Every structure is written in structure tokens, then in C-alpha cells.
Amino acid sequence: MGRRPVTVRLARWSAEHPWRAIALWVVFVAVCFVGGSAAGLNEATDEDQAIGEFGRAQLIVDSGGFDRPATENVLITARSGSLDQTAAKAAAQDAADRLRQVDGVASIGTPMPSRDGSALLVPITMSGDPGTAGDRVQPLRDTTAKVQDAHPQLRVEQVGGPSIDKALDDTLGKDFKRAELLSLPVTLAILIIAFGALIAAGVPVLLALSSVAAAMGLSTLASHLVPATDTTASVILLIGMAVGVDYSLFYVRREREERAKGRSGLDAVEIAAETSGHAVVVSGTAVIISMGGLLLAQDAIFSSLAVGSILVVAVAVIGSLTVLPALLAKLGRWVDRPRVPLLWRITAPRTGQSARPRFWPAVLKPALRAPVATLLISVALLLALAAPALGMKLKFPGPEDVPRTTAAMQAYDRLTAAFPSNGTSHTVAVRAPAEQADRVRAALTDLAGRTATDPLFAPAEGDGPEIQVSVDRRVSVLEVATPHASRSDEASRSLHELREDLVPATLGGIPGVEYAVGGGVAASEDYAAHIWAKLPIVAAFVLALTFLVMAWTFRSVVVALTSILLNLLSAGAAYGLLVLVFQSTWAEGLLGFTSMDAIVTWLPLFLFVVLFGLSMDYHVFVVSRIREAVDRGMPNREAVAHGITSSAGVVTSAAVVMVAVFSIFATLSMIDFKQLGIGLAAAILLDATIIRAVVLPSVMTLLGDANWWAPRFMRRRTVVAPAVEPPPAPAPELVGAR
To answer: I need a labelling partner for 480 at 20 to 30 A (CA). Which of 119, 520, 545, 642 fits?
Structure first.
């Protein structure tokens, strides 16, 4: 028989030495987690995350070494009608007197009336680290609430960056807590339904959680090579639970099937390792390749996500090949205990006539009997669903996309209505020799004057433009406000007018000058341009390497090519669905969001690599089952029917787990997470149903033996069928006339 595959040798050693394998895994996870905690996290800096002109502006500002303390405001407005100026000034004085006594307040500014007299603003400068201001703002908010109690005829509110950060942190904290509380029970419930036994359902969750813990520690260590961002841990949890549960599910289900055929525990583990274990390795490699494509984006955020995802997938693969066989060998038939009576009767593995499924043969009938018509209709439907993606627009969410359920955001709306310069603004950052400082100031003053009469911009409040100059006089900064929402067309036009006309006209003639226009609008536009530029490069890398892996694994160029095309079809349909839902307004009430008429900038690139990687889980598992049947001598049509019907249960279970968990993200408040949850859930659902149960069997039935064509140098079997009896013949109605 020759040398056994490494997956089998690893599984056999683990099954023969279960306590050693389990102990080694526990030690490995503990060392990774503790080692990562001890090393500490190295977070990405502004320099690491600088993209486009926005990034250059940020670096210029940082080089000025400005002291930029956190600021807050007390906003005083009328509850109805016009504002009583005398009462408003009294409330402003009361607020200033009280806030001066609060720890963390550095100074109180002079009350500033709005141009239309509808509001009075009291500026507050906070002391301490601006980065922690949101954690220290509550005493100020409590004091402002007391001022409100003392002046009930007015509306007295606190609003500013720290207050909004605090409100958003509270909202997101509740959202994520709810998501965490729901995701684990939902996953367990679905696995209990899939297995009909509590221990069998718990094993995949246990492996996934331990893989996530180990990867968290390893990613912390890796952050000293590739700086981490604050989203890395969430993605590790998301990807880790998805692939960890999938890999275990594939492995456990196959081991149970073999035991049901009368195999001993060790033989069942070996067969599972040789079949499902091999599929796990190929699938994990495909996911790692996909996530590795993010490194080509040359972006600190995507690089951090790539490293975290690669680590958690690698750990999950290692766990499924080592500790999982040990657990299954040690548990033996106890893995099917305690049984859930009704569910166990439905889900228990069977052999012979009783094992023949009924639902999936009915689903497969059209693809096997009329593959051309089925293929044309299903592909046409998917292409129609993908068509709206051609009109996809990318933007960052702005303040207007934050839920208005918090008092801080309601106050923000009133602030920007009364004081437009406190809303969206562009940052004009200038660096020039110190001897040119006066010319730079004069040019920026001229720039502010030109924007003051332009309806695309908001005039400066108070005595005129505030120009910040660094201590060494080399860096100057001017904030130019616009009264328009950050992702509006008017805000975009104001940015381009600054960049293309006003700033070059006023600053271009100064010797040695370097300038850039940044701000929130610039960040959105520059990052969208960055994504559109990098998406083809990342996609080409992922497609090319995945093609090579699939071709070498299945020794078939045709299987590799159809794998790529089917996954592209699935991703395109997911993109189109996202555009249909989120660039329109029809689903706003259903999903609880306000349409931003765009897709979140980072989502298409991230969604592509995640979907391409995860969808390969199902594809590799299904095609491996088909190839097993072909290698045993079964004709192509029967092999397709057997491979899909025999894998349908586990693929469906894995897909339902992922769809359920991803759907929880759609219930979160922020538009970013709603789009991510809907995009992932819809794509996985389409992939596991229409793609795998309709398009794939149609293609493979139509191609027949050509599925397995390859150049002469590749014609060697790598998936060796285990020495087991031939699978039961598929139902006659599946085969039909040939």
C-alpha cells in the first residue's frame, strides 16, 4: 500500500496516544495564549495606516507635534420657539462655574452664539490623554445634566468627540455582548440538531474555541512583525469559529459514518483522516491563500487581518488533524451520548437501504437529467443577481450613519445645524521651511477668505480662521468646514475644489512647500480609490494560487477551473445582493438601517477573500466525495449523485451554522456590521444551496469524464480511496437514461 498520507499517520498516532495528544494540544494553546499576553500587543500607528493624500496630510500634522487636547461643548438651545438669550447666558455661566470644579477639565472657553441666534455654545478643553477622553467624560456629562435640571425651560446638552465616543462604545458594547451571548448557543443548537447527541455537538465548538484562543496569542506575538489593529481580534473570532466548526464537523461526521458501517474506532478515525482530513488540509490551504492575498493590499489594516486569519486557520487545521482524532478515539461510541431522542432517530448515521436520502435526490433530479437547461437557468439567475454590483459605490460611513438612538448623536445634529463649522471639515496640512511661515499663514488666510463666500464651504465661527502653527514654525494646519454631510456629493465636490483649485492657487507658489488635504471626506475617497486599485491584484493572486492548489490536489485542470468560476459566480451574486439591499431604501425598515447609497469602503475586498476561502470548504469536501466514488470505478453521473447526496447533510449543517452566526451581525446597530453580516450570510447560503446543489452537479454531469482531464505530467492519483466497500448505489431516479 505504500507510505500512508501524513494526515493518516498523524491521526493514527493521536488515536493510539490520546492523552499525550490532548495534553500536547492543551499545552500548545496555553503557551500561545500566555506567551502572547506576556509579549503585549504592538498596534499600528498613523504612519502604518497612511493611505493616499489623506495619509500624507495626517503625517504632516503628526510631524508638527501639536498639542491637541480633547474638546467638549455644552450646547444650549430652546425647547421650542426662539432662544431666550438672557436665560441662555445664565445657563452658560452656571455650566462654566460647575464644570470648572470637575476633575479632568483644563479650561472653559467664552460662550459663542450661533449666527442665527438659535443656540449658545460653551467650549470645554479636557486635560489628560485625548485617547482616553471618552473613558473620562462621564463626570462632565453628569455635571451638564445637573445644569439641565437647574434650567428646565432650556435644552442643555453636552456634545463633542469624547461624548460621542462614549455613547458609541456603550452601544457597540451592548451589541457585541448580545451577539456573543447569541452566537454560541445558536451554534450549539444547530450542531445538536445536526448530530442528535450533545457530546458530538460540543466537540466542534471546543476545538474552534481552543483554536481561537491559541491564534489570539500567536497574533499578539506576530504583531511585533506586522502591527495589529483593533479589528484583528474580532476577525480571528469570526473566521476561527467558522472554519473550526466546519473542519470538525466534516471529520466527526465521516468518523461516525464509518463506525456505523461496523469499523473499529481506530479504523474509522483512519478513514476519516484519509478522506475528510485530506479535504480539511486542502480547504485550509485555500483559505490561507485567500487571506494571504490581503497582504498585497499594502494596507496595515488588511495585513493585520490577513495574519490573524492565517494563524487561526492554520491552528484549526492542526487541531483537526491531531487533537480531534485523539478525542474521537478516546470517546469512542460515547461521542454519540447523551442522545436527544427524536433528533437522534433522524440524524443517526445509517448504512444500506435505510441510509438512502430522499430530499437531496429530488433536488438533484433537474441537474442530472437536464444538465444543460438547469445550468443555463441557474447561471442566468445568479448573473442577474450579480448585475447590480456593476453600480457599486464605495464610501466610509459618516456621522450621519450612526444610529440616532443616543442623546449624544441627537445633540450632534442640533450642534451642526446651529454651528455648521463643527460638522464635516477638511484638513489643509502644510509643511514648509520655517522662514516661509508668514507666507504660509497669509496664503491660508487667503484660502479661508475664498471658501467663506463659496456655498460648498461653511464660514469660520468667531473672529476668523484658526490657523495652528507648530513650535518650529514648519507645519501649519487649517480646518476648512463644509455644511454638507460627509458622504454627500457636495462634500465630495468641496474636497476636489480644494485639492484641484483653491489650495494649489494659494499655496503653490511658496518655495519648498509641501501640502495635502485630509479629513473624513478625503479618507473615504482616498481609501475607495485604494481598494479599487488593489482589488484586481488581490483577486488575481487568489485566483491563480487557488487554481494551482485545486489542480494539483485533484489532478484535474477542469475541476480547478470550474472551482474558480463557481466561486466567482457566488461572490458576484453576493456583491449584487449587497448593492440591492444597501444602495436602495426598500430594506431599511426590515433591517433597521438608513441607506447610505453606498457599500462600506473596505467590505468588497475583505468579503472577496473571506468568501473565496470559506466557500472552498464546501467545494473541496463535495468534490472529494465525488472523486472517491470515481476512483472506485463508479460512472461519472452516479459519482456526482453519490458525492453530493452523501455530503449534503454535513455541508448543510456547516452552512446553517455560518449563516446563523453571520446573520447575528446584521442585527447590530452600525451599518458596517449590518453589511458584513448580510453579505457573508447571503453568500454562504447561495454557495451551499444553488452553487453546490444545482450549478456544480449540472457542470460535472455535463462534462462527464472530461471533469478529470489533466496534462500528462499531472495524471497521478493523490486522493487514494480507502479500502472500504463500494458505496450504496444511488436511487434509480437519480441516474436516469444516459
So the answer is: 119
- Amino acid of residue 572: G
Classify burial at 293, counting beta carbons within 10 Å of its beta carbon; exposed 0-12, middle 13-18, buried 19 or more: buried
Which of 273, 348, 312, 221 shows the shortest CA–CA distance to 624?
A: 273
CA 475 to chain centre: 37
Burial of residue 597 (CB within 10 Å: 0-12, 13-18, 19+) is middle
pTM of the model: 0.82
Q: DSSP letter string over 633-655?
A: T--HHHHHHHHHHHHHHHHHHHH
Strand ranges in 511-638 using DSSP code E only, listed in sequence order: 514-519, 599-600
pLDDT band at 1 (very low <50, low <70, confident <90, very high): very low
Partnered with residue 429 across adjacent β-strands are: 477, 516
| Contacts (Cβ under 8 Å, ≥6 apart) of 566 | 619, 691, 695, 696, 699
pLDDT in tens, 553-582: 888 999 999 999 998 998 899 999 999 999
Backbone angles phi, psi at 467, to 5 degrees: -105, 120
Taking the alpha carbons of 325, 327, 328, 330 in that order, is the dihedral positive or negative? positive
Considering the domain 1-40+196-355 in this protein, what is its CATH number?
A: 1.20.1640
Q: Which pLDDT tens digit goes with each residue over 117-156?
A: 999 999 999 998 888 888 899 999 999 999 999 999 999 9
Quick check: bond before 722 cis, omega within 30? Answer: no
Collapse the DSSP code of 462 into the 3-class scheme (helix H, G, I; strand E, B; otherwise coil) and give the result.
coil
Residue 250 main-chain phi, psi, to 5 deg: -60, -45
C-alpha cell at 293: 492575498
- Rg over alpha carbons for the chain, rounded to the nearest Å, is 30
| Whole-angstrom distance, CA of residue 182 vs CA of residue 184 | 6
The backbone torsions φ and ψ at residue 670, rounded to the nearest 5 degrees and listed phi first, read -80, 140
Residue 139 belongs to what H/E stretch? helix 138-150
Q: Tell me: domain 401-524, CATH 3.40.190.10, correct?
A: no
Cell of 212: 481561537
Query: How far is the CA of 252 from the CAs of 331, 487, 592, in angstroms?
Result: 12, 49, 39
Classify 387 in phi/psi space as left (phi over 0), alpha (psi -120 to 50) or beta: alpha
Give the residue range(s) of CATH 3.30.70.100 domains in the chain: 401-524
Return residue ranges of the chain for CATH 1.20.1640: 1-40+196-355
User: Could you tell me the three cell numbers for 58?
Assistant: 495626517
Q: Report the Cα–Cα distance between both ends of the chain, in Å, rounded.
A: 35
For residue 540, what pLDDT is reported?
93
